[in-house]
Amino acid sequence: MEISISTRSRHLTGWTGLVRPFFSGDTMEAEKTKTEWAKFWSGMGFSVVPVHYVKKDGSCSCRMGKDCPSPGKHPAPSRWKAYQEKKADEHTLEMWFDGRFKDYNLGVVTGKISGNVFVVDVDIGEGKPGPDTLDDLQMANDDLPVTLEQITGSGGRHYFYRAPDNVEIITGKNTLGDGVDTRGEGGFVVVAPSNHKSGNEYVVHPMHQDIEESPVWLENLTRIDSHRIDGSSTIQSLTKDRWGDLVDGREGYMVQLLLGTIRTWWAQKGVLPSVDELVEDAWPTFQNKARARGSDLATDGRGIDLFKYKANYQLKRAKNNELRILHGIEPGSEEPKGMESDVVQLPEVGADAVQSPEQRRFRISDWGMDRYSGEAPEQEWLIENILPRRVPGLIAAIGGLGKSFILLDLAMKVAGGDQGMHRETALGGPVVHNGKVVFLGAEDSASSMHRRISNISGPNLRDRAMGNLFVVPMPDAGGPIAFIQNVMGQYSVTPAFADIRQQLMDIGEMALIIVDPLQAFAHADINTDPAAAQFWWTLMSELCVATGANVLIAHHMRKEGTFSIKKSMQAREAIRGTTALVDGARWVYGLWQMPENDEVVVAQRMDFEAGVGNCVMGGIVKVNDAADNSPRAFIRDESGLLVDRTMEVDGILEASAKLDRSQTHAIFHEINKRWHTDEPFSIATNTTRSLQAWMISEYGMPKRSARGYIQAWTDQKFIENAIHDAKKKSKGVKVIRTPDEPHSWGSRND
After folding, report:
1. pLDDT-flagged residues of the chain (< 50)
2. DSSP letters spanning 67-89
3. Could you give the CA distance from residue 201 to residue 197 in angstroms, rounded to a whole number?
4. Which of 577, 555, 595, 619 is nearest to 13 (CA)?
5. For 381-645, CATH number?
6. What residues contact residue 536 under an 8 Å CB cut-off, 6+ apart?
7. Closest listed residue to residue 410, CA positions, set 272, 552, 197
8. Is residue 721 within 8 Å of 731, Cβ to Cβ?
9. Report field, pTM of the whole predicted structure over 0.85
């Protein structure tokens, strides 16, 4: 079972929920002028310049018109680079955008003049796999901090970061890989509310308007004295001193040296080196050739750690068949070491591979429509209305939320047998099918598993599960194993998987197989390569058919954004990996932290301490069959297990969401009282004067309920967002009338 990687599908997730920026704590209004926008960006610390715009006919406002190669994306002033050294003052901005450049786009200069802010520019579209490249980078290094970000007119993304004063970031194409550019010293980017040739506008994420410090790993990959991450070229040319030692361009030379060593191994030995072998061969040459500017190469940031990082990266590319230097080179005559024992080879497809009728696995002609006549069979369930039988599925959550514990609980209940009227429940439904269960856990020891099993239930369930449940802690059972692996761009099953599959077949009467976590059992780019994800799910689907069992895989969510999930679709988008990883599963279940405001209310009413992992929401985020995908609420009990308490939680939140007549009157009284001060309530949610935040704090309301009341009162003309101070043009919430009284509450001067 080998799959050649020919193409990589592209994906883009998490690009919803964007609006224009806020001004002075109030919601953005469509009538804001370009001048006000310019002052907004200037107030963020940027040097602002006018940029040509796209006319209605699609042409650029510059002299080239329709012949312009970059319509609406280049500065209008002929001497705009002067604003790399100085910022336009408020008077200049007013002259520009109230006058000559009134209809023009906006741009901001990046680099030192703007507080050393630089931009990571993620492009999408044909031949621009920016999101994939960014996922690769984050998986190899760390997640990028949440920062000021905007969606471009083409659908790409700009991430704004601040570099240290002593670091200069390069402005260049594909600096971080295919489709990911950087705009640093000497660069600029177009910003909201500029228009684009697509007809779209640039917009800014409403929740993140602070510019965060750049992570060190990002600085190391984008600083001017660094190199392009793909090793295709160097930013600096090689410079030697009079003794022939390399002074500049050392990172580029480092990559060239590593690539040459990989090529030599492949040509002479027929195999790729390990990281340690590659470093052992190549590092002494670099160490002798490169001259340290400081006391040594390590202090200079060009030491063995950077060398190992680049060695690992280039080997990964070699294994994915992405190194052009290996194309067309016949491997050495020696037998590839380790490959024969590590890969299960299937027969090659060719003329000689055509099977006789007796050898065929199936005949297409046997599967005509006569097979599908009559009444369709009823849906079979492992968990009624939740988890269909015999399908491969994924359960995802951030680390530490409790997915492994929940899966072990499910394993015991499936293995525990049918209790008739007193069926066990799991994941929001009754367990209706029982049988043998195998749990393969790569993260927990036997001792840890033992403690968890003891905490889950009393001896009754453990006794019932005896003989049906097999819990294999991989750290105590010979260490980790791989089901699939990538060898020179070919995804293959391993002998270890073949052995496991046969053992499962020998056990028989399998109901459930759990693999925890995914990454530990897939020695492949399962998170970043759609081909790897497709290969994995093809294998898991076959395992379901062969054993008659459900196969559930534990996986991780991105930590970023998982504490603000409100809908199942948001939970789906938070799952790590390509879209192929989620799409390939027949069933996906997500676990995410309950929104903070809801959690506080629930914790108060149910008398427990709020905290990460104590109140968890869960539900089906993807299913190919009919199932109940309504979200469930889980509360962590004393044993550490998440227990379904949906009915209680829903009742608490419903009750907390309602205001009685006296509470409503008190709120309106407070709004009117604040209106007659210098600090009226704000309709916006991101200020200290927020009406919504006050209602949540004062009455313990869920955020959605407070927001719903405010919206309803506004729609029904009980309150309005009015000018509070004409001189400052500041706004505040003003009472027009109360819900039970038709008369006006008067003006501020009453």
Report:
1. 1-30, 227-237, 242, 333-354, 742-750
2. G-SSTT-SBSSTTGGGGGTS---
3. 9
4. 577
5. 3.40.50.300
6. 483, 484, 518, 522, 524, 526, 584
7. 552
8. yes
9. no
